[in-house]
Amino acid sequence: MKIVKILALSALLSVGAMADETLAANMSQMESGLNSVQKGFLYNTPDLIKSGVADIKKADALFHDAEATKKFLPKDKHHMSNVAFNAAKRIDKASESLLKALDKKEYSKASKSYSEIVNACTACHAVVRGW
Ligand code: HEC
Questions:
Q1: Tens digits of residue pLDDT in 46-57
Q2: Residue 34 pLDDT level (bands cut at 50, 70, 90)
Q3: Distance from C-alpha of 105 to C-alpha of 123, rounded to nearest angstrom
Q4: Nearest ligand 1 atom, CA 129
């Protein structure tokens, strides 16, 4: 009985550890994507902006619905998974607008979408971190 409990507990812990690793990997991808976007604007290199947005979108797909998002929030923030999920949706939407504006060579407009992405990152972090 004891061994079963230990096994169950370690399975639970490893699921938790996997979620942590996934989250850390995705956040690192978010960060490097955001850096590329910023650099792309600063150095006027649209291809770099596009590849950065692609990274952000890939990483953001982790939060495909409120339930999926909840898994990556601290337990005491689970009731705010909708707010966190909305932030993830804002990132997706702003990424689309950014790419559309870029295709039309509307760089000022595209850079507003970049700011919107940064604000949405902060909105989720504010929930997670109790800012
Ligand atoms: C749906 C919620 C959510 C969104 C959206 C989100 N993050 Fe995070 N982020 C988290 C969580 C949860 C953590 C881990 C807890 C912490 O660091 O406070 C985190 C941590 C991080 C970290 C620190 C990672 C570490 O290893 O310490 C970075 C960097 C980061 N996020 C970047 C970003 C960027 C850039 C964006 C936007 C493009 C973004 N995040 C959007 C939830 C989110």
A1: 999 999 999 999
A2: very high
A3: 28
A4: 18
